[in-house]
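can u do me a favor
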């Protein structure tokens, strides 16, 4: 209910954008961070968390998450307007970067007729929220927040680094297997060390 109300109010205050699928993903890390501050018995299983003064706590979490989401989307609003030009721009920049850094992989993707939009659109639209676990996303976003326009200017570098991590595997796959792999990248066992490596690689590019 909190999330639904938050998104409804945001959409009403931003009629040029309205609600676009994927925005719900973007508020989740803020909910998680603010909620974690209130938990008395924090474990890996949120179902076991004990939250004191639940109703008041959720109101505060909802309000803080709303303003954080608003600040985030103010910087990337053209990602969610008609035709989503911001996302198109980011994917184009990512494609150019991959072509420059790993020409064999870029050539292989083209030979298999795999368009970057077919896998990278979700990476841009949801800021990799669906590609890895929530604590790792929070760590990644922490880097974005430390950079000027990090969600705009640094994210496509990180997405390129994410793609290139699998280069040796991808170059052996055909179209259907490529698409399946990139839509379900094997990050289930990733730790903070993997995110640190990914961020470091993105900085190099």
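np, heres the sequence
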């Amino acid at each position: 209910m909190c999330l639904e109300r938050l998104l409804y109010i945001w959409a009403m205050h931003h009629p040029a954008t309205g609600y676009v699928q994927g925005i719900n993903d973007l508020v989740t890390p803020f909910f998680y961070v603010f909620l974690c501050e209130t938990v008395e018995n924090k474990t890996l299983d949120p179902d076991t968390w004990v939250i004191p003064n639940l109703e008041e706590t959720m109101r505060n979490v909802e309000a803080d998450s709303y303003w954080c989401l608003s600040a985030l989307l103010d910087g990337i609003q053209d990602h969610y307007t008609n035709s989503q030009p911001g996302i198109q721009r980011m994917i184009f920049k990512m494609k150019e970067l991959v072509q420059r850094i790993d020409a064999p992989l870029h050539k292989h993707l083209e030979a298999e007729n795999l368009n970057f939009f077919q896998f990278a659109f979700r990476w841009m639209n949801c800021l990799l929220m669906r590609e890895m676990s929530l604590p790792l996303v929070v760590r990644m976003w922490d880097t974005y927040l430390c950079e000027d326009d990090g969600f705009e200017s640094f994210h496509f570098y990180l997405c390129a680094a994410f793609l290139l991590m699998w280069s040796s595997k991808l170059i052996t796959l055909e179209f259907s297997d490529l698409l399946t792999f990139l839509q379900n990248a094997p990050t289930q066992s990733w730790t903070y060390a993997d995110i640190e490596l990914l961020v470091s690689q993105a900085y190099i590019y």
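The longest helix spans residues 54-75. hope that helps!!
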